[in-house]
Design brief:
Layout lengths: L1 E2 L6 E2 L6 E2 L1 H18 L10 H17 L8 H23 L3 H27 L5 H27 L30
Antiparallel strand pairs: 1-2, 2-3
Length: 188
């Protein structure tokens, strides 16, 4: 913080705003809470935005492929469904592996599967199974999912957090009896 004038106003280096007194405290609290949000870890893969978008993409693919036009080309139907499902599954599996290196690897596979869905969408359009509007809807969601995955990969590559596998377990509370299990407390 640098003093701004004789009245004691200051410039917040994080936000760049000129603030004083109460506003300075409020601004710092807001900035600190944003930092906590940015450094957040996902406890469950269902919390990951990319997984949520991939799930929506699967729903759209399902809606498109139950149309009678796809009945004769079961191979393309199966392939596009598998590709869209692969995006969800790779994000979930990578997260559950417990370390960033493997998570990034599986996110890369999920990213590739988004491209597969887009490519197969073109084939479905060329074969007359879907129309331009449906293709645009599918592509928009596939691209949004792909960009979200890319952003997550960039974040993980710069994060100091290496994953749950590397977190040291908490020591047992000395006040607890040694035979008690925190996960399965006794029925006493």
């Amino acid at each position: 913080m640098e003093p701004l004038n004789k009245r004691g106003g200051q410039v917040d280096k994080v936000s760049g705003f000129k603030v004083s007194g109460f506003r300075l405290c409020l601004r710092l609290a807001v900035c600190r809470s944003r930092l906590k949000i940015n450094d957040m870890t996902f406890k469950r893969f269902e919390e990951i935005e990319a997984w949520q978008l991939a799930r929506e993409m699967c729903k759209i693919v399902r809606e498109l492929t139950i149309k009678p036009a796809f009945e004769n080309d079961w191979e393309l139907r199966k392939q596009i469904r598998n590709s869209s499902g692969s995006v969800m599954d790779c994000i979930a599996e990578g997260h559950e592996r417990g370390n960033n290196a493997e998570f990034i690897y599986f996110l890369g596979i999920a990213h590739g599967s988004c491209g597969e869905v887009r490519s197969q969408g073109y084939r479905a359009l060329d074969y007359g199974f879907i129309n331009d509007t449906e293709l645009k809807q599918l592509h928009a969601l596939a691209i949004r999912t792909s960009k979200t995955i890319s952003g997550l990969i960039k974040y993980l590559n710069t994060s100091k957090y290496k994953g749950l596998r590397y977190v040291k377990p908490k020591l047992q509370d000395p006040k607890m009896p040694p035979s008690s299990d925190l996960h399965f407390p006794s029925q006493a």
